[in-house]
Amino acid sequence: MTDKTPVPAEDAEETAARPRAEQGPEAESGRGGAPAAIPVSPAVHKRLTTGLGGFTMAMGACLLLVLAIFVITPRSNKEVLPTVDYGSQLWAMRNDAPFTSYAPEGLPPSWRPTSSRLHGLDEAGDKPVAWHLGFLTPSDEYAALEQSNEKASDYVPRMTNNRNPLGTQQVNGVTWTKYHRKDKKANSLARTLPDGVSLVVTGTASYEELAILAASLRPLTKQSASPSPSTSPRS
């Protein structure tokens, strides 16, 4: 049975009058103070205090590993240009251009074609026809063949970025006019054929490499064959 003996009034008053520190943790928590400390075993205390630290250390190690891989991985800011198939443009120029066009033949495989664009073939002869064919050279420079039946006095200065020639250069016994644009690092060799068609080889490549491209140019004769599937320079 439960002892229901009443507490004398004077004892209750004495208990209330005692300092809270003497009344025990029950009185402290009952008066709105901070919760009393709960005793735990050493093993539980270790898990509670070291678990988060261990996780943090593991995450830090992973981050350091990722940073190390990032630092030692070689990177390059150079743009990687694609290799293009210019067989269809070559076929179109050979068969549809209103003039005898030229294309490189016998360039080494180290000359990689990176761009090819046609203009004017669908204009029913109302506008000049032009073909741009760009290459990445063996020295990782840029060289392009530009050709058009546009008026030479307009076309050549626009393609060479200059109206003032430096002189001339002989390429396989043929005279080409030299141009240079210093602020664009552009070298150019140009010549205008008797039928008014202009050929320009231009780019950041040296005059020696431009001369190799110029020397490889051969006239295209009309054919009824389908477009050539070849996309890379022939060796």
Topology of this protein?
Layout lengths: L8 H9 L2 H4 L1 H6 L11 H31 L14 H10 L5 E3 L7 E8 L10 E7 L5 E7 L3 H9 L6 E5 L2 E8 L4 E7 L5 E6 L3 H9 L1 E3 L16
Protein traits:
single chain; 235 residues; alpha+beta; two-stranded antiparallel sheet; 7 helices; elongated
Describe the fold and architecture.
This protein is an alpha+beta fold. 33% of the residues lie in helices and 23% in strands. It has seven helices and nine strands; from the N terminus they run αααααββββαββββαβ. It has helices spanning 9-17, 20-23, 25-30, 42-72, 87-96, 152-160, 207-215; strands at residues 102-104, 112-119, 130-136, 142-148, 167-171, 174-181, 186-192, 198-203, 217-219. The longest helix is centred in the first third of the chain and has 31 residues, at 42-72. The termini are far apart.
Quick gist of this model?
With 235 residues, this protein is α+β, with helices and mostly antiparallel strands.
- Uncertain stretches of 5 or more adjacent residues: 25-30, 225-229
Put simply, the count of helices is 7
Distance between the termini: 112 Å
> Which structural class do you get from the secondary structure elements?
alpha+beta
How many strands? 9
Spatial shape: elongated
What is the chain-wise order of helices and strands?
A: HHHHHEEEEHEEEEHE
